[in-house]
Specification:
There is one protein chain. The protein is mainly α. The protein is built from 8 helices and 2 strands, in the order H-H-H-H-E-H-H-E-H-H. Helix 5 packs parallel to helix 7.
Length: 307
């Protein structure tokens, strides 16, 4: 009572104010602590939500991984099955593979041979083209020479024909003179005596024999042996007698003299007839005649005549 009585209201108010300040300070600290706890609680709730979301995501991921593992296991089993099946197929296909390798090796060798043959043919073709070009250039360079030669041969045949015509006229004149002499001898014989006539008859018999011999010689066929041999060699004709008998039908002027052009024309038809006879009898393919030989006689000229 004494102490209480001694505390004045001012002191008491001061103490209360101090106590109030202390309580207010403590309350403020509590409020700040509350706010901090509330903030931490909110953070914790947010963290819990995040963790729950992560848990859900992990569950989903876990389920996905489990499904992937399941699919992987199924895929592995399927691959193992295919591998075993492929292994069996390989065991069955190994003999076929060996056979295919052998076939491939054979085809490779065959194609190599074909390729080498194709290269050889290509080289031969190139050589043939070069030869043809060389021949054509040579022909073009010497064309004027062939034309001059053709003109010279034509002039030669004209000279030969003119000489043959002169010879025929000479023979005709000779026969006319012989006939005139015979007429004169007959007229003279009519004036002679019987003895002289008998002597003349013996002489005339001898002369008639010689005349008949001359006429027989005139009736013989004539030709140039060099021309005949050249034409036969050029056309490959072997049977001389048969060819001569065949060529007699080609005596166009009827003078019983076979010219080079007549022999050449007969040779062409003789070869054609011989080929036709061979096809009819033996049923064989005829040999082709040399195109150069046919071109040599295309104008009816014979370079062998008169040699």
């Amino acid at each position: 009572m004494s102490e209480t009585s001694t505390v004045t209201p001012e002191v008491r108010i001061k103490e209360l104010e101090e106590h109030l300040g202390e309580e207010t300070e403590r309350l403020l600290k509590l409020y700040s602590a509350y706010e901090q706890q509330e903030k931490e609680l909110l953070d914790t709730k947010a963290e819990v939500e995040v963790l729950e979301t992560e848990i859900v995501d992990r569950e989903i991921e876990k389920e996905s991984l489990e499904s992937l593992l399941t699919e992987k296991d199924a895929r592995i089993r399927e691959l193992e099955f295919k591998s075993s099946k492929t292994g069996k197929q390989v065991e069955h296909l190994e003999p076929e593979l060996e056979k295919m390798e052998e076939k491939y090796a054979r085809e490779k060798d065959r194609l190599g041979k074909v390729f080498s043959i194709a290269e050889e043919l290509d080289n031969d073709l190139r050589l043939a083209v070069v030869e043809l070009q060389t021949r054509d250039s040579w022909y073009m360079d010497h064309m004027s020479l062939f034309e001059n030669l053709n003109k010279a041969i034509q002039n030669r045949y004209e000279m030969i024909e003119a000489a043959a015509e002169a010879e025929r006229q000479s023979q005709h004149m000779g026969r006319a003179i012989a006939e005139r002499v015979e007429e004169m001898v007959e007229a003279r014989a009519a004036e002679m005596t019987i003895d002289e006539a008998s002597d003349i008859d013996s002489v005339e018999s001898d002369s008639s024999e010689s005349a008949s011999t001359d006429e027989g010689e005139e009736d013989e066929w004539k030709w140039s042996e060099n021309v005949l041999a050249g034409v036969m060699d050029k056309n490959g004709i072997k049977d001389r007698d048969a060819f001569i008998e065949f060529a007699k039908a080609y005596d166009i002027d009827g003078n019983r003299y076979l010219k080079g052009s007549e022999i050449a024309a007969a040779a062409v038809d003789f070869i054609a007839q011989d080929s036709a006879d061979q096809e009819a009898t033996a049923d064989e393919t005829p040999k082709d005649t040399d195109p150069e030989s046919s071109s040599d006689w295309s104008d009816g000229q014979d370079p062998w005549e008169g040699q």
